[in-house]
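User: Structure please.
Assistant: Input sequence and predicted structure:
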Amino acid sequence: MLKQRPRVRPTRLAPGVLVAAVLGLVLVVSVSTLLGAANLGAGRVLREVWAQVTGGVSPLSASEAAIVWEVRLPRVVLAGLVGGALAMAGAAFQGVFRNPLADPFLLGAAAGAGMAATIVVVAAPSVTGWVIGPLPLAAFAGAVGGVTLTWLLGRSAGGGTAVLLLAGVAVASFLTAIQTFVQQLNTDTIKQVYSWMLGGLNTAGWREVLITVPYIGLAAVVLCLCGRLLDVLAVGDDEAASLGINPGRVRIAVLLAASLATAAAVAVSGLIGFVGIVVPHVVRLLAGASYRVIVPLSLVGGAMFLIVADHVARTAFAPAELPIGVITAFTGAPFFLLVLRMNRGQLR
């Protein structure tokens, strides 16, 4: 009797899989654009899109058309960018640290963004007229600053992934303490800061989308190109060095790109948790363990996941809106426990 050969997981992204993932993303974007808190009618919105393409007569009024093109569609696109960035960064961090529970906020990005955002809310609550608002700028700078401080502290302590993880814990604790101290001195701002920390995608047009595209696009290119190198790192540094790869340089490039994507996402969305854990693991279960597959599919899958989560957040209790971080936590927390149980042997 012939033995059945074990199933071999692919190490390259098959074109058919990528096409299917992109078609799924297009479907999610279409549904989320056609349906929303404002009851415009899916058929009328579809005819509006067709009218814009063909130059025909729109069935929507000017204000209704503005809801579609200046409110709903930019928000859907922004959700896709943020979700893709967080999921892709999560996959990259898991590859670098060889830790299935690593996430995009591991190196102090969340704590740095939260501290900087709190300071801006307290010090400049009514600043207007800026091309880019002070809160997104501060969150971006704080996220980058938190990661930079972690990196410098880790390098001064001897480097290495374990040391870098411990440095991230220390930096996050320190920056969170500063944030809490500032909040306690200005208790009237706690509600606004707390709302930002729960995450949200409130947008008044395409400005936030245009701000984030260059950073997330650059990070996506770098991380997708590093997929094969992450696969090599997974077998060990000695083996990677024997193949002519410098593990330290690869880790630096991946960490910089993943941190850039995280900072850009946090700057426009606040702190949205669990995306970077849930999506890469779902991709890993469905498509295999190669980062040449995981990173690009996490980008697409993260976009789909957050678009759906944001759609639920803005329509479930319309006209009221839930923080999107609440939706992702409802999904992510049970999944996190499942991942923890599945990988308990690797975490000892």
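The chain is about 70% helix and 0% strand.
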